[in-house]
Amino acid sequence: MGVTVHFCGAARTVTGSCHLFKTASGSLLVDCGLFQGPKTLKALNYDPFPFRPVNIGAVLLTHAHIDHSGLLPKLIREGFHGKVIATQGTVDLCSFMLPDAGSIQESEVVTLNRRNAARGRAEVTPIYTQADAVASLAAFRPVEYETWIDVIPGVRARYWNAGHLLGSASIEIEFAGEGTAGAPLRVLASGDIGPDAKLLQPSAEAPSDVDYVISESTYGATDRPSVTSKQRREHLANEVRGAHAAGGALLIPAFAVERTQELLVDLIALMGRGDVPTAPIFLDSPLAIRATEVFRQNASSLDPEIDVSRLLASPHLRFTETVDESKAIAKLAGFHIIIAGSGMCEAGRIRHHLKRWLWNGNATVLLVGFQAHGTLGRFLAEGAKAVRIQGDEIKVAARIRRIDDYSGHADGPELARWIAARRPVHRGVFLVHGEELAIAGLSDRIAERIIPPAQIFRPLLDDIYELSTSIPTPVGAVRGRRLAPESVVALDWHNDMSKLVLDINDQIEAAADDRARRVIIRRLRRALESEQ
Ligand SMILES: [Zn+2]
Prior knowledge:
This protein is α/β, with parallel strands linked by helices and 532 residues long. Helices cover 34% and strands 20% of the residues. The termini are far apart. Zinc ion (ZN) binds at residues 63, 65, 164-165, 192. Residues 63, 65, 164-165, 192 line the site of zinc ion (ZN).
């Protein structure tokens, strides 16, 4: 029957990474990530998988980020009993990131059920609990980089450092006898690729001479000016000085792992040299605190120039582990720095701090990572005048600033170079894990110059391709698509609704007087009634 690949996630989106490979002797997954962003997409997390978990022989996990690993506890709860193969760094990070994700699922459902009860709707159960996540860790098996391991009968794999995150990997997979003239069929799944010059990680490595490359495209349309670590620190210093001059808190929503540690390294160095005013830096994230500890343990695999132990001892750095400590920060006025998750402001303690500070023109929010379509971070980045947090409308008066220098992802030219270095690529390149424009941008960058356009594929969610043929052959979505392609790529109606409510509020507030306000409300009411 050959080999097929089913793109179960991260097709025209950056979240929910999951590729299902099927052979005559069994099935395996590369990644099993959580969908994030628009509600329509997040709803997929609650739906059944588009395959039977019990039939999956093994999972090859590229790295610990939740959009790659976050549905593993659900997979295991629903009957998967194989191994999750990952590097030691990934195993260490998942050992607390997955339980943390479980507790987020539990608390989100508590909030949702409170609202549902008030509206007389049925109770929802969490996708999985913290206990499910802890139980799932028993399935993990560590693997060394650059060492072949047997996965399922007839399939072996080898992990390469992807330079994206502690433990991150691109995974080379060989399907015995499925390639040209009985040779193995060789597939390379990129995972997420790090940029060329990253603070704590080496550059990405991977083999060449493969049949297929499945490449991420997150920043495929972006050409980032290359910066040295000195310039990057200088950009950060400018932002810190600006926030200090504004006089309020500096909030930095950051991914708990890696981005947070990079920021800490630079902030403490800047304060130490007197380049920015000294102030307390609150690391307000139990997850980030634990991640910082994992970094300390894995210091030998990181850049030897950085002394993680000295860093942790800085008098400026305060770890706020408990909820009470976290709440105490909210009482502070004046300039201080708070780093908290999540990086796209979708969950975690950053949402409380945003609620406390967003309406205040003295505060600064500094966005340092990728902000996916439909997330609160993306709305802020795009200049929303008001946002909704936990059902409350909050005006945005704070300074919203952004630096891209700390990205964990390669930009367009770097991704194109990474793909070029894999040549010869005999059969095809699949571009996944990117929004529509990013994938189109990367496709333009590599078409002709690097890969013949006919060999570039941009799968939609739930597309299935036969790989054993001389070029990849679409075999259609066997069980049908879970979502219409347009609802994957467009902002869904929930976002349109939020925007409408905010616009109505704006108009009504901006009206000259109460009489004018009543006129607007009457007109809206008439428009509504004419629809019935
Ligand atoms: Zn990642």
